[in-house]
Description:
This is YdcF family protein. By secondary structure, the protein is an alpha/beta fold.
Amino acid sequence: MQHWSIIDYGKSLPDERADAALVLGAAAWGNRPSPVFRERIKHAVTLYKSGKVHWIVFTGGTPQPGYPAEADVGREYALKAGVPMTAMLAENQSRTTWANLDNAKTLTRPFGIRTFLLVSDPLHMRRAVLMAHDLGLNAAPSPTLSSRFSTTGSWAKFLLRETRLYVGYRIFRILS
């Protein structure tokens, strides 16, 4: 079944290096990252501080005018964690995984950033990496080690959502 490959794929933890950690957006609550986004940011900061990446690229726009963009919230959080502003880029217009990746590709090109470790939740990895490859990005998965799911029910709900989105994207690829 497809959802098992989504589970297994998200468990892969390749010991890779890349030019940049590409952090896929998640909710920001005002100027604070949501717990999901905070885990992604912390994971990217760890990759940076361990020397596995030289850049962190944050993605994600704003849910509505007047709120800070997810990417900007992520960058500020990482700055407070000790990552220099000169090692970070923020793509703050996107609202979907596809747009996160596509806009980040355009943003990073002038900086010579060619390889990426994608940072997101484990269950999101299979779809995100497939989309990245479809966009021509040289990307490997780097899932967060913790997740937002505190109950089996919330985990199962997200798994079903990701399975639906992954299968839908695969069908879209075939039909386009």
